[in-house]
Amino acid sequence: MRADDIPEIRALGLFREMEAENFDTLVRGGYFQTFPPQVDLITEGDAADFLHIIVSGSVELYAGWNARETSMATVGPISTFILAATIRDAPYLMSARTVEKSRIILLPSNDVREVFERDHAFARAVVTELAQCYRSVIKNTKDLKLRTSLERLANYVLRRHHGNGGALEFELGQEKRRLASLLGMTPENLSRAIKALRPHGAEIDGTWVRITQKNDLERLAKPSRLIDDHCS
Amino acid sequence: MRADDIPEIRALGLFREMEAENFDTLVRGGYFQTFPPQVDLITEGDAADFLHIIVSGSVELYAGWNARETSMATVGPISTFILAATIRDAPYLMSARTVEKSRIILLPSNDVREVFERDHAFARAVVTELAQCYRSVIKNTKDLKLRTSLERLANYVLRRHHGNGGALEFELGQEKRRLASLLGMTPENLSRAIKALRPHGAEIDGTWVRITQKNDLERLAKPSRLIDDHCS
DNA sequence: CGCTATGTTGATCCATATCAATAAGTGTGG
DNA sequence: CCACACTTATTGATATGGATCAACATAGCG
User: Fold this and answer.
1) Which of A131, B115, B144, B187 has the fewest CB within 10 Å, making it most exposed?
2) Average pLDDT, integer, range B7-27
3) Which 8-state DSSP code applies to residue B63?
């Protein structure tokens, strides 16, 4: 592992408070790897051998069943994924593949569990992280079950708007087919939803998103703190 | 709190390993209450003042948005709910109401967080519990996004079959309207799905479920360890 | 016993999926 | 640098799963 990446990792909420000695244990056993785009990192059903930390690039989490496939999340730097499987020493529930060239740290699950047993600060940080993840998935379920696809798209645009510091124009940052799957619809349906959104104050043109009438968009989207807030 | 309920609580995975002193702190500050059916225990958006433990009866977790409502889970004894909100000191993402007469322990969230800071064993148990919850919700999302409503019903029947020790006949144990909402469909649609399931080896008649051709049912349901397993 | 909830069934409507064709990018090798 | 192949995006036509509306049946419950 490159020495100058270590401080960055150490600064993550998950590792910030833990004992230096335990942090060293984790880092010493870890691997730092760079992957090209479209590489499968993990396959659902496999044993969770490593906790993954994405340092640059982006990774898609997806799941399949009976020849169908759906995108579950896109994760960017700097965050971890499949923490729950690591902790429970259980099989992955999702697969992961790189979207673009990505640098990823792999920490052996055994080490993570061992340090987790010893280090109270680390254990607390894991709890905070997991509780956050749990709440995100609950919000996602509410989004899926309570909203139509158009409403989901409208709220997605607003969430991205807030995530970009309130910019009215920003890049989509991913393929539409993946966004469609993430939002629980087909690519064709997303195309139509994008057209249907135009008279409600949002345009998506190629890779660019522009909010033209925020009021209109919000009237349609009816964003909720209990579904759309990123933190809390 | 009644003295003879305490050992039962203490035996829960969440509390089993923690320091006696800390357990006492939690229990001393807790309330034990009995609620009639259809009582609202918590409302989404409120501050998470208490960690709830259901000792008998059953509780429905549900969520609403824009005049729509959906059932998120039904939880029975002995388990906790809204642990994540308690830990993060964040608003509830779901509401909860009793389904039947229920006995419930309320532990002040402040106490839980305080003990959580002090007691490593408790913190570890919280992690295990949360990781479990997280994985359940992920499985539920996969169920929703990857399967049709008929497939979800078929798999639900098979899960209940396994949950009842492999019995081919068992009680539904809840109103069909709630089951419908839980599975992400309308009551009408569930009625039709039930009829459609008959030629595939499962009958639901009133409150009774009977599996007549397990092979047929499994051929339709294609249950997956990574969606339908209760543990792991 | 009614009364109110819940469940069923039928008719219809709507959202979304599917199928098919075309267009627009994107990357590769000559 | 262009031509080709291949993937992705769009658009239209159609099919279908599921929702909605309405009527009726049934079952709890006071």
Assistant:
1) B187
2) 93
3) E
Reference A133, options B88, B143, B224, B43; nearest CA is B88
Over residues B118-133, the pLDDT tens digits come to 999 999 999 999 999 9
**Residue closest to B97 by CA, chosen among B70, B48, B61, B64:** B61
Smallest Cβ–Cβ distance between A141 and the set B72, B83, B225 belongs to B72
Would you tell me how many other CB atoms lie within 10 Å of the CB of residue B160?
A: 16
Go through B18-56 and write b for each residue having 16 or more CB atoms within 10 A of its CB, e for each that does not: beeebbebbbebbebeebeeeeebbebeeebebbbbbbe
Mean pLDDT of chain B, nearest integer: 94
Per-residue pLDDT at A198: 95
Determine which of B14, B19, B42, B65 to mutate to test the interface with A (most A C-beta atoms within 10 Å).
B65
Residue B199: both structure tokens together: 């030629």
Asked if the domains at A3-143 and A147-228 fall in one CATH topology, the answer is no
Q: Could you give the dihedral angle defined by the CA atoms of residues B75, A85, B122 and B136, in that order, rounded to the nearest 10 degrees?
A: -10
Chain B residue with minimum CA distance to A135: B84
The mean-pLDDT minimum among A131-140, A182-191, B3-12, B23-32 falls in B3-12
Instruction: Kindly state the percentage of chain B with pLDDT values over 90.
Output: 91
- Whether A107 contacts A50, CB under 8 Å: yes
Q: Which residue has the higher pLDDT, B231 or A178?
A: A178
Structure tokens at B211: 């599996």
A44 in B contact zone (CB under 8 Å):
yes
Write down the pLDDT at residue B9: 87
End-to-end CA distance of chain B: 33
**Chain centre distance of CA A84:** 14
Q: Domain B147-228 falls in which CATH fold?
A: Arc Repressor Mutant, subunit A (1.10.10)
Instruction: Give pLDDT tens digits for A53-68.
Output: 999 999 999 999 999 9
The pLDDT-based confidence of A3 (bands split at 50, 70, 90) is low
User: Could you name the CATH architecture of B3-143?
Assistant: Sandwich (2.60)
Alpha-carbon gap, residue A77 to A34, rounded angstroms? 14
The domains of chain B are located at 3-143, 147-228
- Name the residue in chain B with its Cα closest to that of A95: B226
What is the reported pTM?
A: 0.95
